[in-house]
Specification:
By secondary structure, the chain is an alpha/beta fold. It has 2 domains: about 190 residues, Glycogen Phosphorylase B (Rossmann fold); about 180 residues, Glycogen Phosphorylase B (Rossmann fold), CATH 3.40.50. The chain has 16 helices and 13 strands. Strands 3-2-1-4-5-6-7 form a 7-stranded parallel sheet, with helices on both faces. A 6-stranded parallel sheet has the order 10-9-8-11-12-13, sandwiched between helices. It is elongated.
Length: about 425
């Protein structure tokens, strides 16, 4: 297994635990990983494997520091640096700001180049299709080390800079939904074989013990950044409709972001403070504890004005793993896991009335909620166990590092056993 460098921006990030799980599993399988990052973050409660990666990661640090380091490398390799910079500037960036960002990533790549050479890195893998991929493609030019990436929804649908060019330039592109795969293959049809589906996995053994869907007043949970694409404004409108109909329920929204004040204003306008609460930003462990206590998860995603949209929100997978039914939008990758009448319910995106009706119906039918929860857990065990998905990812990364001509099938993994989940009794 060749040495692989993962390129991220902040590391470790609280919102990127799905990436951290993959790193831990890849290392467990023998991969030699390095991390090239921008700033270092401080996150409490990270697994020891991630803490160890963070300790030995290479960080750019402050802007002046990495600019100086990049210029120092450029002075030693002027022709290679200049040709890479001119190549980056000549690409069809969406805006002048994106072009300037690309030039900055060439300088950042020059700052990272000595570490790539010193550590004997054989393959560069960026997370996100925005500037981390621009850093990776520039670093690949500077060092002759091949690169690839995992593309996530925000880079595919919101940033979108050089998306087709990045797919064409990368040796491998992984993405976590079939919807994303179809989109990327459509915009870069000649590189269709380069784009592969690779679901994010959950470490099932690290999740809280599954309990029955609680009795009493249904407490719904929504989790995510407070940004327009999460659709939390429509969720509050749905809560207002339920309250007007006299439906008994609670709704907790966990997360923080620029929409917090606007959402709180909507709650106040509808006199919903006795029903709806904004929990603020929670650690990953506390968010999982909230899921374990809730009746079900609501994921009311929409497409925002800039075209940004969720893929498969990781909170959907985690809620299903904890045996909780999910009400989600019929949008992007969500229908790939939320099967109506099997693991949850789907509603048209942005339709507060349909959302309210789904919450009312499922809130009344606790038997259906339990049945959906069991089926959801079985689906996660079958398709979203990090041990199986880590094996598939390692096969793909090994091929990319070795420069193979045809991407092989994933290594054989034992078929997952049928779910033996039984509800843990509780007094609620």
């Amino acid at each position: 297994m060749s040495d692989i460098a993962f390129i991220v921006w902040g590391f470790p990030e609280l919102t990127q635990t799905f990436i951290h799980r993959e790193m831990v599993e890849l290392q467990r399988r023998g991969a030699r990983l390095h991390v090239l990052a921008g700033p270092r973050r401080s996150v409490v409660g990270e697994p020891p494997e991630i803490a160890a990666l963070a300790e030995r990661a290479s960080y750019l640090g402050s802007g002046p520091r990495w600019a100086l380091r990049g210029l120092r490398w450029a002075a030693r390799h002027p022709l290679r640096f200049l040709s890479t910079l001119l190549w980056m500037l000549a690409l069809p960036h969406r805006t002048a700001l994106h072009r300037a960002r690309g030039a900055a990533m060439v300088l950042a790549a020059a700052a990272h180049a000595p570490e790539v050479e010193r550590r004997g890195v054989r393959y560069l893998h960026a997370h996100f299709a925005g500037y981390p991929s621009e850093l990776a493609m520039a670093l690949s030019r500077l060092t002759d080390v091949p690169w690839g990436a995992s593309f996530h929804a925000v880079g595919i649908y919101r940033d979108r800079n050089l998306l087709a060019e990045k797919v064409a330039d990368a040796r491998l592109v992984l993405t976590c939904t079939a919807h994303n795969v179809e989109h990327l293959r459509r915009i870069a049809p000649r590189q269709a074989a380069t784009v592969r589906l690779c679901h994010h996995g959950l470490s099932l053994r690290d999740l809280p013990e599954v309990e029955r869907v609680p009795r009493g007043r249904p407490r719904w949970l929504a989790v995510g950044r407070l940004v327009p694409k999460k659709g939390f404004d429509r969720l509050i409108e749905a809560a207002a409709l339920l309250d007007a109909r006299g439906v008994d329920f609670e709704l907790a929204i966990a997360g923080d972001g620029p929409e917090r004040d606007a959402l709180q204003s909507r709650i106040d306008e509808h006199w919903l403070s006795h029903r709806v609460v904004l929990l603020g930003r929670l650690s990953h462990g506390n968010a999982l504890a909230e899921m374990a206590r809730c009746y079900g998860l609501v994921a009311p995603s929409v497409r925002d004005r800039e075209g940004d949209v969720d893929g498969i929100p990781n909170v959907v997978l985690e809620a299903m793993a904890l045996g909780r039914p999910v009400i989600g939008s019929q949008l992007s990758g969500i229908p790939e896991v939320v099967e109506p009448g099997k693991t949850g319910l789907l509603v048209p995106p942005g339709d507060a009335g349909a959302l309210a009706e789904a919450m009312a119906w499922l809130g009344r039918d606790r038997r259906a909620a339990r049945r959906f929860g069991l089926a959801g857990r079985a689906r996660i065990e079958r398709d979203f166990d990090v041990r199986q998905n880590g094996a598939r990812m390692l096969t793909a990364l090994s091929w990319a590092a070795a420069g193979g001509s045809e991407l092989p099938r994933p290594e054989n993994s034992p078929a997952p056993r049928p779910s033996k989940l039984r509800w843990r009794s509780n007094p609620r």
